[in-house]
Design brief:
Number of domains: 1
CATH class: Mainly Beta
Structural class: alpha+beta
CATH topology: Jelly Rolls
Number of strands: 8
Helix content: 10-25%
CATH architecture: Sandwich
Strand content: 35-45%
Order of helices and strands: EEHEEHHEEEE
Bound molecules: zinc ion
CATH superfamily: YjbQ-like
Largest sheet: 5 strands, antiparallel
Length: about 140
């Protein structure tokens, strides 16, 4: 059995961004030489998330607006009382991003069959940065043969 570990790095834009990482993960599968198995991806941050959904530009705008309404950044949050926390004073006020990350989750598992990720026609693997812009990492582990 092959076990292949790799990290994907990406630079995100301001605010909430949805980043299609399907192609990068396909490259990792090719590098791993695994034909049949499973891959696990996990975002390595507390204000990011992963999901599988349609990467359509108007839907991405809907998602950003929905998240903004669901967990408004301007609401009062204890985590945003930077002066009361033991942290650098330039820490961002990003409680909304942590809360969204917890709701969305930060890992996905996907079947690999004949060297191909088993996603549906309209499915993409999406990394959400909920507090960009930042340099972000996604861990990928592929197990199989
Ligand atoms: Zn924070």
């Amino acid at each position: 059995m092959i076990i292949h570990n790799q990290t994907i790095e990406l630079e995100t834009v301001k605010g909430i961004s949805l980043n299609n990482i399907s192609d990068q993960v396909c490259d990792v599968i090719a590098t791993s030489k695994v034909q049949n198995g499973v891959l696990t991806v996990n975002s390595m941050h507390t204000t990011t998330a992963l999901c599988i959904n349609e990467f359509e530009s108007r839907l991405l705008d809907d998602v950003r607006l929905f998240f903004h309404d669901l967990v408004p950044p301007q609401n009062k949050y204890l985590h945003n009382d930077i002066h009361l926390r033991d942290c650098p004073q330039d820490e961002p006020e990003n409680a909304h991003a942590h809360l969204l990350s917890m709701l969305l989750g930060n890992s996905e598992s996907i079947i690999i069959c004949d060297g191909v990720m088993q996603l549906g026609r309209w499915q993409s693997l999406i990394m959400l940065d909920l507090d960009g812009p930042r340099k972000r990492c996604v861990g990928v582990q592929i197990m199989g043969e």
